[in-house]
Design goal:
This is PaiB protein. This protein is an alpha/beta fold. The chain is built from 17 helices and 18 strands. A hairpin with a 5-residue loop joins strand 11 and strand 12 (320-322). The longest helix has 19 residues, at 199-217.
Length: 586
């Protein structure tokens, strides 16, 4: 597979479609009897049928490998290179940096199908020629029949249905806002490999986007007027590509806005791509199953989500465990004998893993607020508090290594029941490394101290900065003298009150605000700074639809089934559902 860190992931189907339409010369790779085989060749991408068409000379022995793969069900790889450019360290604000290269690339995998029938092979070549030739000036019909017969006998036509796809947009998303701005400015006046210009389109789109987002977040009941048709797909661009696919390369005259030209997005075969909107199951979907349990993980995967959002604590013996509260919650916790706790239990970080495993968290107390808030939650008797390692093992097995994780460190600067940031981060990073899931994992927290540690110790892992400005939790403390104790020394007032600016400068890749805290202009500002915006916790379908229209990159919800319905109504690609094991218990 192609190495794709999460911040470089390009997962918008419409963007990928247009990239494959615009860059139709690739490298076909197969395993031959004498080793790897590779042929550079033009192709035609058929978005509706989700396949590419191409041909090889029969003088090229690789056609026999395609024939063998077709017979045996093996896969070939087609590598497609998009725009790319050298990036000099002189363009960064930080002096101690090294050069790099920005680029877009797509890998297509599939089992080839031979195109042997003469009429189909001729039609295939006609489609290829039509992409480059004006039919009034030249067409295949102008070739003499004898010559055409000889040419057709000399080629091997094939189709490559896309069984799997990987797309990468490495566009400086891992740099600071200042560094990204420097790259964009430096590339503006420089030639870029395989580039084309779209400056006026970009400016036109941004004018529409600003006005539409302002109206939507202000609570308009009807959707804002659609943007010019050439830009409708831009609204679905996702976290890995939204900000800097269009900023770093568009402003750099790469013209990637061309990727989003055209009409509405075509349908997508489920399971080929991760959807552009990140559907996150809050506490693994606590509206439907007991929160943060293995049963909830199974059900979320069976429902179909992009990401499992989970909470993390730490035991006295240094084990990362999956639970929300820093003390055992009496609303959902019973002893091994079945007795409900009558008050919060001891701090989790003072209990061993073995002691913690004795408690049953498989149902809500019938007279609790939890039971009242989540009447659809199905109990699972005997459910225990799982370790993070156990969740990874189950989810990786059921999803075949395709699910993503958003892990929240449940620590607080003013709570004696809270473990030390260094201790919980060390345990979590250890489990992530052991499971091999760093490229699909985000770590989030209201306490930004843990995020600074992750960025220093594991910069390949994305960090999400949680924020709330509510009576029940205000980790920003806007207007208070000095920085908040939650923000690791970052003083919001030093950024003129701009939360996205503070998060970007702190090194975050994702801003995750409480959805009711969003103000008009926030989403556009965050994405302009290269941040993805993933809001929490959204359970009302009307709110979901409004936030999608506002352009957020993802939603965290207790009810993933509701969000799937809203996404389907809006024509968004849905994340694949994974078959659960027969045993739905713990």
């Amino acid at each position: 597979p192609m190495y794709v860190p999460p911040e470089f992931r390009l997962d918008d189907p419409a963007a990928i479609d247009e990239l494959l339409q615009a860059h139709d010369f690739g490298l076909l790779v197969t395993a031959g009897p004498a080793g790897p085989e590779a042929t550079h060749l033009p192709f035609v991408y058929d978005a509706a049928r989700r396949l590419v068409e191409g041909h090889l000379s029969r003088g090229n022995p690789q056609w026999r490998s395609l024939e063998r793969l077709a017979a045996e069900g093996g896969q070939a790889l087609l590598i497609v290179q998009g725009p790319h450019a050298y990036v000099s360290p002189r363009w960064y604000q930080r002096p101690a940096a090294v050069p790099t290269w920005n680029y877009l690339a797509v890998h297509l995998y599939g089992t080839p199908r031979p195109v042997a029938e003469r009429d189909r092979l001729t039609a295939q070549q006609r489609r290829l020629a039509a992409r480059y030739e004006d039919s009034a000036a030249w067409s295949l019909e102008s070739v003499a029949p004898d010559d055409m017969d000889r040419l057709m006998r000399g080629i091997y036509g094939f189709e490559l249905p896309i069984a799997r796809l990987e797309a990468k947009a490495k566009l400086s998303q891992n740099k600071t806002a200042a560094d990204r701005a420097g790259v964009a400015a430096a590339l503006e006046d420089r030639p870029v490999t395989n580039s084309w210009h779209a400056g006026r389109r970009w400016r036109r789109w941004r004018r529409w986007r600003r006005s539409a987002e302002t109206a939507t977040l202000a609570g308009m009941s009807e959707s804002p007027e659609d943007p010019p048709s050439a830009f409708r797909r831009r609204r679905r661009l996702s976290s890995g590509s939204r900000g800097w696919l269009l900023v770093t390369l568009l402003l750099a005259a790469l013209g990637v806005a061309t990727l989003f030209a055209g009409g509405e997005r075509p349908g997508q075969a489920e399971g080929i791509w991760t959807p552009g909107l990140d559907l996150q199951a809050h506490r693994a979907g606590r509206g439907l199953r007991p929160e943060n349990t293995l049963a909830a993980v199974r059900h979320a995967l069976e429902t179909g989500v992009t990401t499992l959002e989970l909470d993390l604590g730490l035991t006295a013996d240094g084990v990362a465990v999956v639970l929300h509260d820093r003390r055992l919650n009496p609303e959902i916790t019973r002893t091994a004998e079945g007795t409900w706790l009558v008050e919060p239990g001891p701090p989790v970080h003072r209990l061993t893993r073995r002691a913690l495993a004795a408690y049953d968290v498989g149902r809500a107390h019938p007279e609790s607020r939890t039971a009242e808030r989540f009447p659809e939650q199905q109990p699972v008797e005997g459910a225990r508090i799982p370790t993070l390692a156990e969740v990874f093992a189950l989810a990786e097995s059921l999803s075949d290594g395709r699910i993503r994780y958003n892990l929240e460190t449940k620590i607080a600067p003013d709570d004696p029941a809270s473990p030390a940031p260094e201790a919980i981060v060390a345990a979590v990073l250890r489990d992530i490394a052991a499971a091999g899931v760093a490229a699909r994992t985000t770590i989030q927290s209201f306490d930004w101290r843990s995020l600074a540690l992750v960025q220093a110790e594991a910069p390949e892992i994305a960090t999400a900065y949680l924020t709330a400005e509510r009576r029940w939790l205000d980790n920003l403390q806007r207007g208070h003298p000095g920085p908040s104790p939650w923000t690791a020394g970052v003083d919001l007032d030093a950024y003129a009150g701009s939360v996205p600016a503070a998060v970007a400068e702190a090194g975050g890749r994702i801003w995750s605000p409480y959805y009711r805290d969003l103000r008009p202009g926030d989403v556009a500002e965050a994405q302009r700074l290269g941040l993805a915006v993933i809001v929490w916790t959204v359970n009302d379908p009307a709110d979901m639809a409004r936030l999608i229209e506002a352009g957020v990159d993802g939603l965290i919800t207790d009810y993933p089934d509701r969000l799937r319905t809203v996404m389907a109504e809006q024509g968004l690609a849905l994340p694949p559902a994974f078959a659960a094991e027969a045993d739905a218990g713990e």
